């Protein structure tokens, strides 16, 4: 089981769109996928038409008084399940703070799902918090969407430094440019130069496209409702890079390495 | 195997027959319709499939009795053999994907026609020496619909299955729906299933697909067994009781004729012989209640039939036992016995052809026809006496006395024939107990049969090893005559003969103790309990 997390301290940079589309693409490839909507706003849950509610709330889930499995919902897509958001997730920091080894807590909660899922994708709320720290410790690959600005690159460096301070296991970082506005020369310039210079950058960039915004109307991943669109093709490329970065084995029942 | 196959074949445990045609309210894209106010709607899914289904079992329903269902599913060139428990959970599966991935066996087939693997392994302990044969065939036209809640979220997949039955009899079944919940939506899916079942014409009666298919042909799973399935009552006229017993035995005999002629597996002949032996014993021991002259008329005919079946069965027993005999070889090599095995198989081939000819003959046809006819007349007897219970008690008591006398006369010096004779008496007693089983308390019956069976097993081992020793000498002579007897084969056969002799000595040594128990006051009381007037 490989754990991916979409993470950025800032909001509105395309974390949920990335999580939802990559989860769909992984499931389409035959992996058994669980998407955990950790954001109390519940955008990923909304996109899959699943009510943002977890029995017993975040407290029961984090403390383990209710098994994670009890709260998992099937989406409309084969192989793709969702652990919904819950409004009580806004207090996850407090709940984690009172738990043992809070930074390891998410990893511990996900461990029993190893036999059931090949891929877990964590869709994180924008913050620097105990929750994000727990996510960073659980993840194998951090997918970091960035708006192409100098400042956002700086936050990536801060994140890299922070992870560098971890003892033991560290997630790999796969940053990528998101919401690129083709009309802005600065966007184009940064998006073209940086990925070539840095190994923690994906070659794929996701442009700002109205079709991606349309997901909230269709309530489905763009990769599902418009699989041949430019947006879908870009997410597909990004998924391949993420999958290769994680060293994910071929999906169950399929011979050879994933292509 | 195409991906769609495992998902689209519905879990048979949750199938509900629905009105045919489906009400408009359930038709694709009809929105709330008949489900209006429920918050649910059905939309057409994209998946449709046509699957050819063949259910397999042994002739005596061993899988069904073990709570298992074996189904062969074929869709677009891919075939799967799937073994499930009664609740629909998958136990084992074997896939065939055409030339490269192998092909399923041509049914009927023995287990060795299946590739080694978890499926063959699981089946082996249940199926034993029997062949698997198709018990039903149908084609399922499956159409999947998605059930949405008021958020337009899929909460269940509803598979409509229009089944055309082609075997045992052609029939079109009413469309059946299977509701399969999406994870986390079990409660909503159950509510939907309840609503669907409550629609006009719907029913909450949940019936596995195989049961529905068989029912359409007026059959049911498990409708054949080697047991005498006759319900007698103590007060019914003995002639009527015996006529129904004989009719049931004739049914069992005839049921096994096609499988014996087609040589599907050895147990068709075995069951056929059991039916003949039970008939002969019942004629001898209780046939006096039938109209005068019938016993004398039919006894020679059933003897002819019994004799007709003996050579093939003897060779079957040898061949079935051969692997174990080979495994016990110490001095000789397993390969040394191959010419012997070949000789047995050739001899069996000849005997089987002779048997098949006999079972196709006019004499056999007349026997079955005439016997049924006289039984129909005998069942309608006006004679009220004796009653069934009186006949049962008297005949069991008489044969029991003969068993005790015959056994008591056996000493260490008695010839083998005296034990063979006792075995025949024991078989007669056993058949009587089985024939009149429905008159007795099951627990009392079970205790009596259990001890008798122990004695019979010992006598069977003694006689079988005795007969086989004689036969193996005869085989050796035949093989020498046919110049098909290499020296090493004869030596190996000699070792087998020695092994048989040891087993025979062992059986003889065990006999005295077993008979003493059987003839003890407690043992006698167990049989006597069956000769007292029954409660019913």
Question: How does the SSE layout of this entry go?
Answer:
The complex is a heterodimer of chains A (259) and B (536).
Chain A: E1 2-6, H1 15-28, E2 33-37, H2 43-47, H3 57-63, E3 73-74, E4 80-83, H4 92-97, H5 105-110, E5 119-123, H6 130-138, E6 141-146, H7 150-164, E7 172-180, H8 185-197, E8 206-207, H9 210-213, H10 215-218, H11 222-225, H12 230-246
Parallel strand pairs in A: 1-5, 1-6, 2-4, 2-5, 6-7, 7-8
Antiparallel strand pairs in A: 3-4
Helix pairs in contact in A: 1-12
Chain B: H1 4-8, E1 16-17, E2 41-57, H2 62-65, E3 68-75, E4 78-85, E5 90-96, H3 98-101, H4 118-127, E6 133-148, E7 154-167, E8 171-172, E9 176-181, H5 186-198, H6 209-216, H7 238-255, H8 257-261, H9 266-286, H10 294-327, H11 338-360, H12 362-379, H13 388-408, H14 416-435, H15 442-481, H16 487-519, H17 521-528
Antiparallel strand pairs in B: 1-9, 2-3, 2-6, 3-4, 4-5, 6-7, 7-8, 7-9
Helix pairs in contact in B: 7-9, 7-12, 7-13, 9-10, 9-14, 10-11, 10-12, 13-14, 14-15, 15-16
Tell me what the CATH architecture of the largest domain in chain B is: Alpha solenoid
Distance between the termini of chain B: 57 Å
Q: What Rg of chain A, in angstroms, do the CA atoms define?
A: 17 Å
Number of domains of chain A: 1
| CATH topology name of the largest domain in chain B | CHAD domain
Report the β-strand fraction of chain B as a percent range. 5-15%
Q: Which CATH first-tier class of the largest domain in chain B would you pick?
A: Mainly Alpha
| Helix/sheet category of chain A | alpha/beta
Helix content of chain A: 40-55%
Class from secondary-structure proportions of chain B: alpha+beta
Largest interface: A-B, 13 and 10 residues
Count of structural domains of chain B: 2
Please write the string of helix (H) and strand (E) elements of chain B.
Answer: HEEHEEEHHEEEEHHHHHHHHHHHHH
Task: Could you tell me the CATH topology label of chain A.
Answer: Rossmann fold
CATH superfamily of chain A: P-loop containing nucleotide triphosphate hydrolases
The spatial strand order of the largest sheet of chain A comes to: 3-4-2-5-1-6-7-8
